[in-house]
Every structure is written in C-alpha cells, then in structure tokens.
Write a structure and sequence with these properties.
Chain lengths: 55, 266
Amino acid sequence: MEILVCPMCKGDLELTVKVEAEGEIMEGTLVCKDCRERYPIEDGIPNMLPPDQRD
Amino acid sequence: MALSPDEIRSQVSASYGARVRPTLEASSDLIPLIDASASCCSAESSCCGSDAADVDITNIARLYADTDITDLPATVTDVAFGCGNPTAIAALQPGEVVLDLGSGGGIDCFLAAKMVGPDGRVYGVDMTPEMVALARKNAATVGATGVEFRLGEIEHLPIDSGSVDVIISNCVINLSPDKPQVFREAFRVLRPGGRLQVSDIVWTQPVPAGLEADMDQWAACIAGAIEERDYLAQIAAAGFTDVTSVTSEYSGARGLASADIVAFKP
C-alpha cells in the first residue's frame, strides 16, 4: 500500500518479503528508512502498532 | 485511581480481542459480522439498539453481491450497526480514498468500498489483532475488493500525510485515552478539502464523576465518552473547520447520545 508510512516518524518504509502466497505478502518486514524502526508482517497482517504497544 | 493511557489501550484491546476470538476461531462460514458481544454494543451498554445484534455475514455477502451502488445507503441503514454511520457511507463518492478508524470486523469498509468503486480505495486501521484477522476473513467471505486492513493505533496512524479524502469511524474514538491526538492524526492524513465524518457516543451533560476509572465502562464506550462540546472543541483545536454535530439521545440512558459529526480540513 503506497500510502503506508512509519506510524512513529512518518518516514517511508522498505519492504522485505519472506513468504508470499497468491500475490499477498504473508510474512515479511517493513523497515522505516528514517528511524530504522522495524514492523513485522505476520499471517498477512502488517503490525503497524507503535513498538511499545506490541505484545 | 486513574488509569494510564497505556493501561486503557491494552485493556480495551484485550477486552475486544477476547470477545471476538470465539468468532474468529469458529470454522463455520456463519460468522456474525456484527455480533453484539464483539463491539461496544453489549447488552448492558446503551451504545446502540438491540437490533444491532447478530447480523450474519452470509446475509451481508448476499446483499453485498446484489447491491447496486445506488441502493447501498438503504442497505447500510438496514443492517443497523454500532452508533450508526450510514450517512457517512452514503456521502462517499466514486474514486474517494477512505480511512476507517477502528475498523473492527470490517463492515463499514466493505460498504465504503462499494461506494467508492474501483477507482477508490478503503483502508481500515484497528489496534486489536483479532479484529484485523476477522476483517480479513470477512473480506474474503464477502468478496470485497479495494479494501486493506492494518493493525495500528489511531493515535499513531501508519498513513501518509495528505493522502485521504474521507475519514469515517463508528463508535470508536470514545475508546481512545488521547482523543486530541486522534483528531490531530486525522487532520494530518486528510488532504486539504478532505472531511472527517464520524459517529460516536458523547455525553450531553457533564460526565458523572468516577466513571473514568472503571475499565468495563471504558470498553462499553461509556467511561471514555466525553461531553459533546469538548469533543467538538478538540476537533476544532486540531485545525478542522465547519464542525457540525447532530445528536440523538438514547432512551433509558439519560445524558448519553449518539453524535453524527462532520468537519473539514481547510
């Protein structure tokens, strides 16, 4: 999604795909190009919660 | 004792996650999309009428497939969910980019996607992992296209500035422990001329003392609700103009009302 940004600093994100299925990214990582925060993609769902709100 | 914002967030998320988990794990296709127990519309809460319960997703899927865009406002009204946001959805135009704050099981997003059509786009953000998983499952069942769901916080939207035409939200912002921040983020992601068109529960009288420390009352959309005039003032403070609100009081719940609010980013 082209309008997705880092929820903390609003920087652009870099996508790394680990597992793709039927054109959907199932596992991977989004890394902020500015603050370098990492956001995991698990079960097809990008976890864009602030880092301190993750389980 | 007052609860910290983080305590409120995590307990609200846990509460909604626990309520939606049995639905999510059910193998049947008969997923109640608007299960009363999976929203703030619990039986003891006055957030919405009793007719909001148990709208079956197979019925929604059928309606969805058959419904022409011109019929949709009526369809939205028929399903009667949450505080009710049919006017916001009815106002959507083809090609618009829509963001739903607190997208839950996804119904508003599916209906919005139908309204904005193939040239539009709908994004749903919800902070409860189980809700996002359910929304994705429902999207597949309904056959919705042009909709994406993201696990995220409405106080920290993972959405680029100036990228959204319309923000919708149905009975969710009251759950936030930092509403001014929600409105600032909404303002940021909207393009100039974009609108905030949300429904929420508000008090039409001063909030009764002591409520805010009761977590059950937070999750039931009562303890987190604020006075209507404060709600509108916070929206204006974020930079919005032409802020208007229409409230309807709940019978049997003196002082609580559902508000349909519209505001514009200049």
